[in-house]
């Protein structure tokens, strides 16, 4: 079995984060208690249990570690303890720090700050919104700022005075927790009713300013050349800018179990890499093409503001390309773990980010289930798109149900259709954006085709309006989710033993 220390570290890191977030307790006393229990067990087992009974110690734990091809030994335990203790301490410290900053900000309802604009304009109904970065209480913090009648740009240094609004906590069960959402963005609240004075232009990193300007140019040109509805979808698919998508469209996608499509992911990255290979492989060779791909992926992560899903896909792809450059085999578990570790070290509160959960869950679904699904359904490798779609949807189903409490019986059909249409839309979208950046007239002949493909996508989202498409269920319990995954990973063995029972279940 392979030693995967990064995977073990990530498992421990997640455990520490969850204990810190939901129990708000230090994990150290728990480990002390476990150590005492194991010590006492070891002493008494030598006297009470026979040698035969000793074989059953930790059997279940070893079994599940074996599933991901890991050795369960003292090194694994040590890595788990260290990583979980470290992440647990960070979460508790950051939570306390957030509360201190909140209390300090609340003391002064009116804030007078010097800050730097670090985002593009986000247009709302009655105002424009930006993200600013400032130093408060000797710490760098980020805030939303609501502005009327003033156009700001990324990198502007400003003097602002306004009313501070603390983010609201969750009011009702399963209600939206705005404060936890802002933690994922490292934002401490909102300033509104602002007076703004621009002190200096282009006060941020030059490279980031250029990247932001390119992103704004792309957004402007897309909106100028295709309808508002289609442009908002295309910008969501290519750049992850979903703010301008109408709420009704978002709801249709959620009802059809298609909301993950609006979040840029590894699929987009894979199509990018295919396009680069087609363009450069023959003229430059595989090694130079791989280098170009790595540079482009880094730029694309900057362009999409390091969204969790793109960062995951980008890091994994870069590791794969780099391994080929140095003639080493790439390990999917290690690549996935490293990508997740980078994101969680940067911001442990991203563990609650739906996009991150769906992105990583989708990859795990492919890695862990695709082979079994292919064998059960007897689908040839040439039709992998079908089995991949099924594997992803089966794995992320508990995540979707926990977030929306809506089960769509047609989700497999809608996502199979998506697996056919989204690829061409993404490829076409990238080509279209490149052409309009060169010259808007060059992209004119593709405009109608782009709009047609997006309207097909919107048509598929209407699956959520079919009869019995919305079955409301309660939030699944932890033990129910665990049972679901145990059954999911055992389905192949169950099918072999009880084919007639399964057949009856599927029929009735």
Q: What order do the SSEs take from the amino end to the carboxyl end, as H and E?
A: HHHHEEEEEHEHHHHHHHHHEHHEHH
Mean pLDDT level: 79
Count of helical regions: 18
Straight-line N-to-C gap? 42 Å
Question: What is the CATH superfamily label of the domain at 108-204?
Answer: Nucleic acid-binding proteins
Which topology of the domain at 108-204 does CATH recognise? OB fold (Dihydrolipoamide Acetyltransferase, E2P)
What is the radius of gyration computed over CA atoms, rounded to a whole number of angstroms? 25 Å
Describe it.
The strands form two sheets. This protein has a five-stranded mixed barrel with strand order 1-3-4-6-5. Strands 7-8 form a two-stranded antiparallel sheet. α6 (206-225) packs antiparallel against α7 (228-239). With 508 residues, it is of the alpha+beta class. The longest helix is centred in the N-terminal third of the chain and has 34 residues, at 74-107. It has helices spanning 5-23, 28-48, 59-67, 74-107, 178-185, 206-225, 228-239, 247-255, 266-284, 286-303, 308-325, 332-346, 354-377, 384-404, 411-438, 444-460, 478-497, 499-507, and strands spanning 110-117, 122-123, 128-136, 139-147, 157-165, 187-200, 406-407, 471-472. Among the domains are: 5-94, no CATH class; 108-204, Nucleic acid-binding proteins (OB fold (Dihydrolipoamide Acetyltransferase, E2P)), CATH 2.40.50. β2 and β3 (128-136) form a beta hairpin. It is built from 18 helices and eight strands. Mean pLDDT is 79; it is low at 51-65 and 502-508.
């Amino acid at each position: 079995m392979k030693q995967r220390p990064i995977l073990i570290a990530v498992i421990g890191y997640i455990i520490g984060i969850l204990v810190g977030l939901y129990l708000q307790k230090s994990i150290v006393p728990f480990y002390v208690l476990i150590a005492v229990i194991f010590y006492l067990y070891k002493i008494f087992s030598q006297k009470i249990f026979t040698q035969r009974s000793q074989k059953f110690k930790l059997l279940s734990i070893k079994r599940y570690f074996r599933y991901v091809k890991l050795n369960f030994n003292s090194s694994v335990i040590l890595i788990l303890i260290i990583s979980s203790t470290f992440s647990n301490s960070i979460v508790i410290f950051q939570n306390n720090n957030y509360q201190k900053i909140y209390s300090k900000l609340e003391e002064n309802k009116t804030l007078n700050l010097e800050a730097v604009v670090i985002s593009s304009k986000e247009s709302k109904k009655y105002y424009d919104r930006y993200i600013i970065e400032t130093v408060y209480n000797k710490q760098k913090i980020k805030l939303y700022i609501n502005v009327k009648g003033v156009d700001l740009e990324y990198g502007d240094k400003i003097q602002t005075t306004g009313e501070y609004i603390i983010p609201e906590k969750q009011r009702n069960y399963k209600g939206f927790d705005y404060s936890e959402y802002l933690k994922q963005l490292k934002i401490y609240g909102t300033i509104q009713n602002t007076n703004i004075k621009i002190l200096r232009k282009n006060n941020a990193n030059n490279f980031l300013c250029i990247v932001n300007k390119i992103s704004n140019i792309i957004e402007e040109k897309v909106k100028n050349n295709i309808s508002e509805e289609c442009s908002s979808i295309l910008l969501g698919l290519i750049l992850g800018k979903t703010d301008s998508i109408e709420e009704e469209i978002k709801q249709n996608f959620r009802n059809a179990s298609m909301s993950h499509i609006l979040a840029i992911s590894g699929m987009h990255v894979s199509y990018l890499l295919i396009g680069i290979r087609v363009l450069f492989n023959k003229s430059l060779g595989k090694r130079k093409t791989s280098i170009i791909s790595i540079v482009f992926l880094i730029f694309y992560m900057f362009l999409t503001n390091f969204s969790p899903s793109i960062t995951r896909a980008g890091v994994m792809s870069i590791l794969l390309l780099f391994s080929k450059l140095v003639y080493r085999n790439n390990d999917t578990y290690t690549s996935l773990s490293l990508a997740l570790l980078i994101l969680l070290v940067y911001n442990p509160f991203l563990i609650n980010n739906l996009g991150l959960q769906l992105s990583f869950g989708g990859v795990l679904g492919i890695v862990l289930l695709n082979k079994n699904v292919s064998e059960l359904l007897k689908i040839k490798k040439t039709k992998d798109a079908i089995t991949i779609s099924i594997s992803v949807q089966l794995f992320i189903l508990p995540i979707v149900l926990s977030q929306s409490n809506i089960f769509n019986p047609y989700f497999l059909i809608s996502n199979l259709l998506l697996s056919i249409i989204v690829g061409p839309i993404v490829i076409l979208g990238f080509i279209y954006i490149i052409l309009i950046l060169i010259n808007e007239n060059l992209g004119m002949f593709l405009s109608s085709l782009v709009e047609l493909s997006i309207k097909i996508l919107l048509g598929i989202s209407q699956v959520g309006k079919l009869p019995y498409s919305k079955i409301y269920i309660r939030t699944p319990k932890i033990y129910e989710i665990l049972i679901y995954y145990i059954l999911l990973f055992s389905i192949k063995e169950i099918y072999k033993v009880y084919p007639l029972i399964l057949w009856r279940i599927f029929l009735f």
